[in-house]
């Protein structure tokens, strides 16, 4: 009964218009006074932020804050794939004949996640990691591997929550929500960085200026609230670290695994 009610309420509030209203407030000067309360509520490590709290003019500006230099160490090994975000791993494993299996009890196909892109064939037997950003986390998304950006794809959709409730009880959230996909060609293949919008995320934005060169650790994009990144590795290109599994917390720049040798 309660799950049905929450699901129905979430369906009603999943429209972009509702998310835009929330985003408009977060971008207004009136939101500024909520910044300290928000930081306390979510236990945000404000000492890592690039600026003092008083220097942020809106709640949105604080959501999308940069960090002080040196707050995240980027694994410099050229064979290493790093986490593009600070996140909780909510799914990870081999892709089984084009299917991502059992992310909070639900399966997803690569075809639907990438919106039937011709590139889906590259990932049918690859590897995936689902990385969830809570409101506590740093919200900027970084390049996971050195390479060249081959394509940027925008996929319109809903804005369902991607938290525990959303992933478990809403139908196929990762492939129904709005998404930005960046395809990066690296030394042994390709990776897709799938940025999934969520409830109260007014938008996902690329960092400007956009370039074709992808340097590991460089800024790629940012969420204007917590959300999820799905990292897809092409067939036979990736060896995950031994403890990459649901429940692991990772920091941006931390090793997720290694590229297979050419």
From TrEMBL:
What quaternary arrangement does the UniProt entry report? Heterodimer of a large membrane-associated beta subunit and a small pyruvoyl-containing alpha subunit.
Q: What does this protein do?
A: Catalyzes the formation of phosphatidylethanolamine (PtdEtn) from phosphatidylserine (PtdSer).
The record describes its post-translational modification as:
Is synthesized initially as an inactive proenzyme. Formation of the active enzyme involves a self-maturation process in which the active site pyruvoyl group is generated from an internal serine residue via an autocatalytic post-translational modification. Two non-identical subunits are generated from the proenzyme in this reaction, and the pyruvate is formed at the N-terminus of the alpha chain, which is derived from the carboxyl end of the proenzyme.
Native organism is: Paenibacillus terricola
The EC number(s) this enzyme carries: 4.1.1.65
Q: What is this protein called?
A: Phosphatidylserine decarboxylase proenzyme
The record's Pfam families line, in alphabetical order, gives: PS_Dcarbxylase
Gene name, per UniProt, is: psd
Q: Which residues form the active site?
A: 86 (charge relay system), 142 (charge relay system), 227 (charge relay system), 227 (schiff-base intermediate with substrate)
**Which positions does the record annotate as the modified residue Pyruvic acid (Ser)?**
227
């Amino acid at each position: 009964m309660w799950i049905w009610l929450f699901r129905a309420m979430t369906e009603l509030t999943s429209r972009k218009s509702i998310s835009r209203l929330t985003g408009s407030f977060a971008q207004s000067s009136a939101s500024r006074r909520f910044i300290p309360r928000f930081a306390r509520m979510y236990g945000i490590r404000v000492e890592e932020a690039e600026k003092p709290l008083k220097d942020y003019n809106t709640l949105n500006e604080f959501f999308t804050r940069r960090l002080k230099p040196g707050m995240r160490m980027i694994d410099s090994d050229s064979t290493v794939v790093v986490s593009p975000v600070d996140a909780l791993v909510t799914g990870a494993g081999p892709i089984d004949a084009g299917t991502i299996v059992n992310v909070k009890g639900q399966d997803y196909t690569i075809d639907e996640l990438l919106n039937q892109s011709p590139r889906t064939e590259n990932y049918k037997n690859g590897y995936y990691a689902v990385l969830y950003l809570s409101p506590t986390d740093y919200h900027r998304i970084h390049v996971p591997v050195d390479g060249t950006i081959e394509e940027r794809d925008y996929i319109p959709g809903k804005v369902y929550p991607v938290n525990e409730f959303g992933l478990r009880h809403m139908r196929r959230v990762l492939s129904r929500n709005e998404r930005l996909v960046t395809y990066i060609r690296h030394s042994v293949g390709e990776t897709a960085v799938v940025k999934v919008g969520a409830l109260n995320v007014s938008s996902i934005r690329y960092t400007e200026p956009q370039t074709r060169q992808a340097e590991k650790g460089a800024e790629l994009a940012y969420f204007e609230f917590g959300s999820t990144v799905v990292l897809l590795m092409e067939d036979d290109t990736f060896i995950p670290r031994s403890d990459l599994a649901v429940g692991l917390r990772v920091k941006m720049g931390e090793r997720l695994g290694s590229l297979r040798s050419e």
